[in-house]
From TrEMBL:
<dbReference type="Pfam" id="PF00730">
    <property type="entry name" value="HhH-GPD"/>
</dbReference>
<keyword id="KW-0456">Lyase</keyword>
<keyword id="KW-0408">Iron</keyword>
<keyword id="KW-0326">Glycosidase</keyword>
<dbReference type="InterPro" id="IPR003265">
    <property type="entry name" value="HhH-GPD_domain"/>
</dbReference>
<dbReference type="InterPro" id="IPR000445">
    <property type="entry name" value="HhH_motif"/>
</dbReference>
<keyword id="KW-0479">Metal-binding</keyword>
<comment type="similarity">
    <text>Belongs to the Nth/MutY family.</text>
</comment>
<dbReference type="InterPro" id="IPR005759">
    <property type="entry name" value="Nth"/>
</dbReference>
<feature type="binding site">
    <location>
        <position position="196"/>
    </location>
    <ligand>
        <name>[4Fe-4S] cluster</name>
    </ligand>
</feature>
<dbReference type="Pfam" id="PF00633">
    <property type="entry name" value="HHH"/>
</dbReference>
<dbReference type="GO" id="GO:0140078">
    <property type="term" value="F:class I DNA-(apurinic or apyrimidinic site) endonuclease activity"/>
</dbReference>
<dbReference type="InterPro" id="IPR004036">
    <property type="entry name" value="Endonuclease-III-like_CS2"/>
</dbReference>
<keyword id="KW-0004">4Fe-4S</keyword>
<dbReference type="InterPro" id="IPR011257">
    <property type="entry name" value="DNA_glycosylase"/>
</dbReference>
<keyword id="KW-0378">Hydrolase</keyword>
<keyword id="KW-0238">DNA-binding</keyword>
Length: 232
């Protein structure tokens, strides 16, 4: 695993590449954000935004989602993967918000994960973006980049990746780091076609070294400042 000093370098490089990284799911309040993140599971933000453009006009409150038959809501989100189960979860979530939270999305992470369709990642996104609570949500991009750069081990679970990032990243940078890692993975270090030739972190990247057929560099000796030759 990387040291805090090495992590600082990674954060600074990615921060320089994507200083304005942000949540790309369109929303205007915590409730809309919760619905959007729920819909985004195994689906691109771009597709979710196309669907929610009309969805958030038709449905503005938990009551609105419960005022239509489940089949109608399914049709409204049918372009989204797993739309049937997501429609069911949305209505269950809305019923729970009304019955237990006065129709409002709870601010506490522990309460958010009780909602149908809301897992740890979704709760982290909501608390950080809607309520300003520092959090790192590990989606597919964050997980991939963390493992490629050696921040996490290849067989780490999503929770283990999150815990390692939380230990290495200053707490006041958790949310912006989450966004920047997503941007880095979405627009630069892609799953299938990463831009390895132009990557400023290529020396750190397990995948990049394989693709570019580079040997793994051995660490510099701290005391002498002498860099050992690359391993063959």
């Amino acid at each position: 695993m990387v040291t805090k000093k090495e992590m600082r370098h990674i954060l600074d490089v990615i921060g320089g590449m994507f200083p304005d990284a942000h949540c790309e799911l369109h929303h205007s309040n915590p409730f809309e954000l919760t619905i959007a993140v729920l819909l985004s599971a195994q689906c691109t933000d771009e597709t979710v935004n196309k669907v929610t453009r009309d969805l958030f006009v038709k449905y503005r409150s938990p009551h609105d989602y419960l005022s239509v038959p489940l089949e109608e809501l399914e049709q409204d989100i049918r372009r989204i993967g797993l739309f049937r189960s997501k429609a069911s979860n949305i209505q269950k979530l809305c019923r729970m918000l009304i019955d237990e939270y006065g129709g409002q999305v709870p601010r506490e992470h522990s309460e958010l994960v009780k909602l149908p369709g809301v897992g740890r990642k979704t709760a982290n996104v909501v608390v950080s973006n809607a309520f300003g609570v520092p959090a790192i949500a590990v989606d597919t991009h964050v997980e991939r980049v963390s493992k490629r750069l050696g921040i996490a081990d290849p067989d780490d679970t999503v929770l283990e990746v999150e815990q390692k990032l939380m230990r290495l990243v200053p707490k006041d940078e958790w949310t912006i780091t989450h966004h920047r890692l997503i941007f880095f993975g979405r627009y630069h270090c892609k799953a299938q076609n990463p831009n390895c030739p132009a990557c400023p972190l290529l020396e750190r990247c397990r995948e990049g070294r394989k693709r570019m057929k580079m040997p793994r560099a051995r660490k510099t000796k701290e005391k002498t400042g002498v860099t050992l030759p690359a391993e063959e």
